[in-house]
Amino acid sequence: MILTELPRRKPAIVDTVVEKQPNDPIARRLRELGFVEGEQVSVVAGGPLGAEPLLVQVGFTRFALRRSEAARIVLKPEVAA
Amino acid sequence: MSVSRIPLRLALVGNPNCGKTALFNQITGSRQKVANYAGVTVERKEGRYTNRQGREYAVLDLPGAYSFNAASLDEAVTRDLCRGFLPGEPKPDVLVCVVDATNLRLHLRFALEVRNLGIPMILAVNLADVARKRGITIDLNALERELGIPVVETVAVRRHGAQALLDQIDRTAVSAHLPPQLAEGADLHAETRRLLSVAVGMPSRTARIDDALDRWLLHPLFGLLTLAVVMFLIFQAVYAWATPIMDGIDAGTAALGSWVGGVLPEGPLSSLLVDGIIAGLGGVIVFLPQILILFAFILALEESGYLPRAAFLLDRSMSAAGLSGRSFIPLLSSFACAIPGIMATRSIQDPRDRMATILVAPLMTCSARLPVYALLIGAFIPQRTVWGWFNLQGLVLFGLYAAAVASALVVSWIMKRVRRDKSEHALMLELPSYRIPHPRDLAIGLWERATIFLKRVGGIILALTVLLWFLLSYPGAPADATLPAIDYSFAGLIGHALTAVFSPLGFNWQICIALIPGLAAREVAVSSLATVYALSAADDDAASQALLPLIHDGWSLATGLSLLVWYIYAPMCISTLATIKRETNSWRKMGMATLYLFALAYVASFITYQVAVRLGAG
After folding, report:
1. Strand pairing partners for A52?
2. A34–B67: do the CB atoms touch at under 8 Å?
3. Residue B356: CA atoms inside 13 Å, Cβ hemisphere, count?
4. Do A32 and B109 touch (CB under 8 A)?
5. I need a labelling partner for B342 at 20 to 30 A (CA). Which of A71, B41, B398, B451 fits?
6. How far is it, in rounded angstroms, from Cα B27 to Cα B24?
7. Mutual orientation of helices B222-236 and B208-217 as an angle, nearest 10°?
8. Cα(A44)–Cα(B151) distance, rounded to whole angstroms?
């Protein structure tokens, strides 16, 4: 599952950030901002038009990510509780 | 022991929103100097302070950065300066890495990057009071032990809240102890997690107040409603509250001018002082109320954390037109005046988005165009009711505003199409915790904006006003002159010569001459027309009243419409151009803006005039 498909306010765990092109600067920046394996994320809100951008909580920080940016973030499959 | 004369160089480095600038203000107070780094439009803030032993420190407030893998000009400057690669900027002696105690997961990772520079370094855990209130516990001793560098707590907004840091700076300056470094390519995220598990206890990931506020302020309906109210307030303030002060400044300048004119014997000196220098200075100061009011709002919104939320709400609609969510407030304030609007683009971090915003800002219908619109609409558009309740004159005025906005959207959309750099520019905007702005930080921020405007832009405006005065006053009229003096001046000659260029737009020589003093400020065109028509009028309103019948009879409807359209686009305000030059640090970009606005104005007026003439309005 990728981050754009995650329902609102449902916590999930980051698996990896995929590169759209070699040396993707956006993917690298996402990792630097804390989107790395094992980190908990959730989608807090969406923009008023077409849920663009998304408000994403990672670590203790909230970032507004456009959907194309958020689509780079792959989540771990849900583990049955 | 002798006290060193050369100040020790400190640099504050940290993530955006870590409260670094508030800490900088706390340490250096008002002893700050704001300029740009050589050759780039990144703000360089330096301050000084003297410790109890009389040792002087020079403190740099570096631009906020998430990483040394620079993704913006700001980050590149921070990286190069810390490494000592920036020309003319020696490497700092001591680095103070500022982290937000409530946001350590993000900020400690960057602190580890900073530590790897191998410069004596102190970690300042800022906003310690907020963290305590949220029940966050930070074991400073454990953090110090694990990091191998001194760690101190700071509360930037409290008196003496930086004392522990200042004491530690003195100790580190003496010891010059180098921090430990991690191996190249080490996993900084893993190390950050280890540090957090050892030293930090955090009951919840977010503040409850942030959750509650975001639920409302980012709501698709209530969020937009709140935003509309905030925008309306800003617009109202910049537009309406500033007007009485600006009128006062105008009146004061005029009074001073007539007093000087009365004291000095009539002649070139008196004329230069009154019509050149005093009028020019007045023309500079008159912008200050709008700039200060707008920036008071913008700084408060930025500090409180609302500005990024507004950008979040508007990003989708603005990015469709090739702008970004952050372009909205600068563009909105450009309706009052493009000068504070262009200065406000500093809150747009992405240089490409910022440039696009600067280029379209002059298209927003600023308040200086209103007197011109009022005169022309009064003269040419009949007072008539259409479609039941609309006033035709009001409709035309609305149409002029709408045409300006539509043109701006088209221009920015075209710029997005034609620019070479089509790469995906990320939003990735941090929405920081809400905070109550500290009055000291607002005051220092306002003071900076005012001085930047007066020093950098004011000089250009004053110089150009004096030049304009010269063109309008020399050579004087001959003794047997029958026409107004302006006709014999250089400006008059230029105006007559320009008629060849502007006659396809339907402009007569009177209009062409009035366009020249209109360069100083658009509204001056009205009183200049009165001068050209040899009317003696006490003020702009009287000039407008006296002109109405003259131009109604003297000009064709096509000419009137053409001039109206001209004023939608015309880059005829040297103050705006001076501000563009200052804010982009580039004559080329200013030239580009001038040229495209001029071309747009010319083409649009040409089409308007020719079509109107064909339709029988000539």
Report:
1. A49
2. no
3. 30
4. yes
5. B398
6. 5
7. 80
8. 33
Interface size A-B, in CB pairs within 8 Å, comes to 106
- Contact between B188 and B182 under an 8 Å Cβ cutoff? The reply is yes
pLDDT band of residue B5 (cuts 50, 70, 90) is low
Question: Residue B429 in contact with residue A64, Cβ under 8 Å?
Answer: yes
Residue of A nearest to B188 (CA): A32
Q: Residues B232-262, buried b or exposed e (16+ Cβ, 10 A)?
A: eebbebbbeebeeebeebbeebeebbeeebe
**Dihedral angle over CA of B502, B507, B513, B519, nearest 10:** -70
8 Å CB contact between B216 and B210: no
With CA atoms as reference, report the closest residue to B162 among B51, B62, B46. Answer: B51
CA B70 to CA A50: how far, in whole Å? 31
Rounded mean pLDDT of B515-529?
73
Distance, in Å, from the CA atom of B331 to the CA atom of B365, rounded to the nearest integer, reads 10
Nearest to B313 among A33, A44, A48 (CB): A48
Among B133, B194, B125, CA closest to B164:
B125
Mind listing the pLDDT tens digit for each residue in B269-288?
A: 888 888 778 877 887 787 78
**Who's near B133: CB < 8 A, 6+ residues apart?**
none
**Nearest partner of B42 among B349, B446, B322, B314, judged by Cα:** B349
Assess contact for B36 and B42: CB atoms under 8 A. Answer: yes
* End-to-end Cα spacing for chain B: 88
DSSP B19: S
Look up residue B155 and give its DSSP letter. Answer: -
Predicted pLDDT at B540: 65
Of A34, A39, A69, the CB nearest to B427: A69
Nearest-angstrom CA–CA distance, B438 and B54: 29
Q: CB–CB of B347/B325 below 8 Å?
A: no
CA B217 to mean position of chain CA atoms: 25
Alpha carbons B45 and B63: distance in angstroms, whole number: 9
Q: Provide the 3-class DSSP secondary structure of residue A47.
A: strand
| Percent residues over pLDDT 70 in chain B | 96
CA-based nearest residue in chain A for residue B207: A60
Could you report the per-residue pLDDT of B563-593, keeping only the tens digit for each?
A: 999 989 887 688 888 889 888 888 999 999 9
Helical spans, DSSP H, in B321-433: 328-333, 338-344, 351-360, 370-380, 392-418
Q: Which two tokens stand for residue B136?
A: 């966050």
Q: CA angle, B463 as apex, B462 and B465 as ends, to 5°?
A: 65
Distance between A60 CA and the closest CA of chain B, angstroms: 5
Would the CB atoms of A49 and B316 count as touching at under 8 Å? yes
Question: Three-class SS of residue B43?
Answer: strand
The β-bridge relationship of strands B8-14 and B200-201 is unpaired
By CB atoms closer than 10 A (0-12, 13-18, 19+), residue A16 is: middle
Provide the token pair at B110: 């960057």
Tokens of A16: 């990896």
Look up residue B183 and give its two tokens.
């191996």
Contacts of B254 (CB under 8 A, 6+ apart): B282
In the chain, the amino acid numbered B240 is A
Q: In whole angstroms, what is the distance from residue A17 CA to residue A74 CA?
A: 6
Q: How far apart are CA B591 and CA B602, in angstroms?
A: 16
Put simply, whether A63 touches B (Cβ < 8 Å) is: yes
